[in-house]
């Protein structure tokens, strides 16, 4: 029988990425440790079975079991201040995990979910995705590449994870199609501007805000981005030109960030400028190389983590 813990802490459950096929919680230790130390949050990193030995929905139910076990364990200092956050494939899994009835009805359901450069729409062809992001040849390498870093991996990841005949718009596979009512009260979507997955994140954030507005009898909050539109303002996420300031977020441009807040709920969008997929992971940064790009990514990692932490501490867990 476990001994009840004293002084409960707000708890952030994180889910690592790796295309549903690779990786381990250890991959995010540096991020998790820094977030816990700086913001006084208990961070619990969750693991899951990888594809192809564990195709959809194996990982989802592994995470379900772990989440429920943690919140039920009296020796772990948790209370009802909980949230989910995932990176890449983990962003997908965080959004899908939060939809499960067992998670929503447990003693400590997540008050918020955050996706960081998540793969949210598995029904969309990779050619459409690569055509919806910005390419900036004047930036320092590897950010100036004319080829997306994920392009050669997507087909293998999809083949490994998605069972034959699976409905690709199932919200538990592609959370881009999850109705607003199926998600936690607060949702934050973070994306990397130079990433083929950025547009689907942008579209989901706008759609969720519009659905919440409609449910309250209000007008749509945003025009809905469309990766196949002839209007490049809707087809392309971000901005053609590099940012004028290095190492900083864009705080005065709604293409890079906005927040809609209602009574007891909210949607937050944050696009990190001039960075590639995995920019906040020390191992990926070192693998990709480029001293200037690494310095820029480190500064922007600190900046976006501060935004997410303040949102959790001052908004989500205070309501």
Automatic annotation (TrEMBL):
Residues 13-213 form the Alpha/beta hydrolase fold-3 domain. The lineage of its organism: Eukaryota, Fungi, Dikarya, Ascomycota, Pezizomycotina. Keywords: Hydrolase. It comes from the Eukaryota. GO terms for molecular function: hydrolase activity. The keyword rRNA processing does not apply. This is Putative alpha beta hydrolase fold protein. InterPro entries: AB_hydrolase_3, AB_hydrolase_fold, GDXG_lipolytic_enzyme. Coiled coil: none annotated. It comes from Phaeoacremonium minimum (strain UCR-PA7) (Esca disease fungus).
């Amino acid at each position: 029988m476990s001994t009840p813990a004293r002084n409960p802490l707000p708890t952030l459950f994180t889910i690592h990425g790796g295309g549903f096929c690779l990786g381990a919680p250890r991959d995010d230790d540096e991020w998790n440790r820094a977030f816990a130390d700086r913001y006084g949050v208990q961070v619990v990193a969750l693991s899951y079975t990888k594809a192809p030995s564990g195709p959809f929905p194996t990982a989802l139910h592994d995470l379900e079991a772990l989440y429920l076990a943690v919140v039920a364990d009296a020796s772990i200092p948790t209370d009802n201040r909980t949230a989910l956050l995932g990176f890449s494939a983990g962003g997908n899994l965080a959004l899908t995990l939060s939809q499960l009835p067992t998670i929503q009805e447990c003693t400590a359901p997540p008050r918020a979910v955050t996706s960081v450069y998540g793969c949210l729409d598995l029904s969309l062809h990779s050619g459409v995705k690569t055509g919806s992001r910005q390419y900036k040849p004047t930036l320092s390498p590897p950010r100036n590449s004319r080829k997306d870093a994920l392009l050669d991996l997507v087909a293998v990841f999809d083949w490994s994870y998605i069972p034959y005949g699976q409905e690709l718009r199932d919200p538990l596979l592609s959370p881009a199609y999850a109705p607003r009512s199926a998600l936690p009260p607060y949702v934050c979507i973070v994306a990397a501007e130079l990433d083929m997955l950025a547009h689907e994140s942008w579209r989901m954030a706008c759609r969720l805000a519009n659905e919440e507005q409609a449910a309250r009898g209000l007008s749509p909050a945003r025009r809905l981005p469309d990766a196949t539109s002839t209007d490049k303002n809707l087809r392309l996420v971000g901005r053609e030109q590099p940012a004028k300031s290095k190492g900083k977020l864009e705080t005065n441009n709604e293409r890079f960030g906005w927040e809609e807040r209602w009574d007891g709920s909210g949607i937050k969008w944050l696009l990190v400028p001039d960075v590639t997929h995995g920019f906040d992971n020390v191992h990926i940064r070192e693998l990709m190389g480029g001293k200037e790009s690494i310095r820029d990514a480190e500064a922007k990692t600190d900046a976006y983590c501060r935004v997410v932490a303040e949102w959790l501490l001052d908004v989500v867990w205070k309501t």
